[in-house]
Amino acid sequence: MDAPVLSGVEGPLLTIENLRTYFYSRAKRAFIRSVDGVSLSLARGETLGIVGESGSGKTVTALSAAGLVSAAPGVIGGSVELHSNGTRRKLLDGLDRYVRVKEHDGRVAEVEKDERGWRRHAETLMKGVRGKEIAMIFQNPRSALNPYSTIGNQLVETIRLHTSLRGGREAKECAIHWLERVRIDSPRLRFDNFPFGMSGGMCQRAMIAMALCAEPSLLIADEPTTGLDATIQSRIVELLAQLKAETGIATLLISHDISVIQRLSDRVAVMYGGTVVETGCATELLAPEAKLRHPYTAALLASIPSAETIRRKSYLQAIEGEVLDTIEVPRGCRFYGRCSRVTEAVRERCAGLEPPLAEVAPGHKLRCWLYPSAPSGAMHETRT
Amino acid sequence: MRRYLQTPGPIGEYSGLPLWQRAAPLDLIYVGYGLLVVAVVAASYLLGAFGWLPDDPQAMNVGLINAAPFTTGHLLGTDFLGRDLQARLILGIQAYFLPGLLAIAISVLGGSVLGVMAGYLGGGFETIITYFDNLVDSFPRLVLILLVIAAFKPDIYYVMVVVGITGMPVIANLIAGKIAFLRQKSFIEAAHALGLPAHTVILKHILWFNCRALLVIQATLGMAEAILVETSLSYLGFGVQEPTPSWGNMVQAGANYFLQGNFWPSTAPALAILATILGFQLLGDGLNNVLEGRRRR
Fold first, then answer.
1. Element containing residue B247 per DSSP (H, E)
2. Domains recognised in chain A with CATH numbers
3. How far apart are CA A41 and CA B12, in angstroms?
4. What does the pLDDT look like over B143-164, one tens digit per residue?
C-alpha cells in the first residue's frame, strides 16, 4: 500500500480496487467509460485529494464508492472496502453475480446487468453505511438543502436518523451544538432559518454540520467550494481544515482547484480519462520543482496562472486539445493525443500500449512510459 | 403615496413574517372569499345531512308556485311545485359534496402516485403518464362520463370516479415537473447521501415539504370541477334525479318558466353555482399566489 505513515495498524480505511463505472450512450451505441479501472486507498485520518479536469471521472468515482450512481449500467466491476469501527465491509460484495461483462479484444464490449437485483442487494450492503459511515457534501450547497424546510429541522432529522438521540429537545441541542462547531454565528437564531435566508457559505456550513453530525469515518467532499465566492471559499477550506484537525475524519476531497487540494490534502491522486495517472504525497507531487511528474500533472500545474503571468499579462497556459472523450478510449496512453513530451524513443509504446501505474519513488506512482518503474517494488500491472 | 417599512427584528428573517402579511391584498380577498364559500358550503352540507332545514324541501304547496323571494315563510321563494327554494338549495349540496371529495381524493392520491413514479423513478413511467395525459386530453370528458352512465347506471359516484381519474394526469404532471425541478437542485441526491430512506425522501421531503401547497391548490380547483360536472349532468338529466334536489336539476326545472317572467326559480340555483365555483376557483388561485409565491411584490 502506498499509504504514508498516517495509517494505523489496521490498514487503510477505504480501499477501492479496479473500480469500473460505465454509462451507456444510446445515441452512439457505445459505453462512456467514466471510471475505468480506478484503484485508490485512503488511510484513517488522511485527506486524499482527487484532481483532474471536468469529465475525468472524479465525481463518479466518489458516487460509486457511496453507492449513489443512478444512471445505467453504472458500476460494473471492482471492489470497495470500508474498514471502520472494527468492521470490514465489502460494499460491492457478491454484486458481481448481477453483472455479466463480455470483453472483446481487451475491452468491454457487452454488459448485462440485473439493475433491480443489484440495487436491492447494494442497498442491503449500504445499510448503516451511507450517511452513517460515509457522508457527503456537495457543490452548490444552497440547492443541496430542502428549500421548504428550516436548516434546524433538516439537521435534527439527520441526527435522529443516525444517532441514539431520539427526543426533540436533545436532538435540537445537538443540532445547535453542531451549528456552533461549524462556526455559524448565533446558531439558535439560524436554527429556524430557511436555506434561502442564508448565504451560500452559511448553507455549506449547515451541510457540513449535517454530514458530520453522525460522526462518520469518511467524508466525501465533492467540490465543496464550487459555487461560492472567493472569500467564502477560503473560509470553507479553513473550516474543513479545522474540523479535520478536531475530529480526525478521513476525507476524499474532489476538486479541480489545486490550491484547495494543496491546502487540505495529505495525498493526491490525479485522474485523467477515467483512470488515476499519478498518485503521491501532496507536498512532493505539487511542489513546483518536482522532477518526477506525469506530463498531464505538469500541464495541469502549468495552467494555474501564477503571479508572474498575471503581472506580465501574458497568455495563460492551456492544455492543448480537449478532455478525453471516454467513449473512444485510445489503445495506448490516454493522454497521448495531448501530450507534449512524447519522445521518439517511446512514441510507439505510448500509442499502442497503456502504461502501468508504476512506482517511481516510494509512495509515488505514475502511469507514463517516460518513467520506467523503480527497480524495487515495481508492479507489473498491465490492464487489459 | 407608498410606504416602505423595515420589519422590526433580525434582518434576514423574511420567513418569520406570517403568511398573511407577506401576501398581496388582492390574493387575501380571493382566499377570504374562497374560505367563506367553503365554510358556507360545509355548514350547509351539515345542515342538510342532519335535516335541519328551514322548511320541508319536498312539501308541495300548489297554491304558492313560483313565488318571489321574501315571501312569508319562503325566504328565497318557491319553485314550480311550490317547494321551498332555500331548503332545496341547501339540500342540493348533498348532491356534490361527498362525491366531489371522492373525486378529489382519487385525483390527488392517484396523481401523486403517478407523479412520483414519473418524476422519481422516471424512464418508462414517464412515457406511460404522457400517453395517459394525451388520452384524457383527446377525449371529451362529458362524452366519457355519458358512456360510463350508459354502461353502468346514472349514479353520481360513478361519475365522480371518472372525474377523479381524468383529473389525475394534471396533478401527476405538476408533481413530476416539480420533482424534475427539484432534481436540478441536488437536495434529493444529498438526502440519499445523508442516508435518509427512500420513503422519507418521497413522502416527507418531496410530497409534504415541496408539493403540499400544490396539492391543496389542485384539490380546491378539483372541487370546482366536480361541482361543474355534477350540475351540468343534472341539468342534462343524467345526474341527480327529481325529486332529489340538485342545483343542476333545479336550474333545469326552473328554466321552463324563465321566459314567462318567473326567472327566479332557475336564477337562484344558477347564482349559487356561480358563487360557489367562483369561490373554489378564486381560493385555488389565491392560494397559488400566496403559497407558491407567484405574485411577487
1. helix B247-255
2. 14-133+255-366 (3.40.50.300), 136-254 (3.40.50.300)
3. 44
4. 898 898 889 887 888 889 999 9
The answer to whether A149 contacts B14, with C-beta atoms less than 8 Å apart, is: no
- Is residue B254 domain-resident? yes
Residues of chain B with Cβ-Cβ distance to A140 below 8 Å are 185-186
Number of domains into which chain B is organized: 1
d(CA B69, CA B137) in angstroms, rounded, equals 43
In this predicted structure, the answer to whether residue A91 has a pLDDT above a threshold of 60 is yes
What is the helix (H) or strand (E) element at residue A240, kind and residue range? helix A230-247
Mean pLDDT score of chain B, rounded to an integer? 85
For residues A274 and A18, is the Cβ–Cβ distance under 8 A?
Answer: no
Q: Is residue B16 part of a domain?
A: no
| Of A132, A150, A193, Cβ closest to residue B195 | A132
Angle at which helix A151-162 crosses helix A168-181, to 10 degrees, equals: 110
Q: Is A175 on the interface with B (CB under 8 A)?
A: no
Is residue B241 in a domain?
Answer: yes
Which pTM value belongs to this model? 0.77
* Residue A63 CA: distances (Å) to CA of A137, A228, A341: 11, 22, 33
Q: Is the ipTM of this complex over 0.90?
A: no
The mean predicted confidence, pLDDT, of chain A is 85
Question: Looking at the predicted structure, is the pLDDT value of residue A363 above 90?
Answer: no
**CATH number, position B113:** 1.10.3720.10
Residue B53 lies in a domain: no
Domain that holds residue B101: 91-291
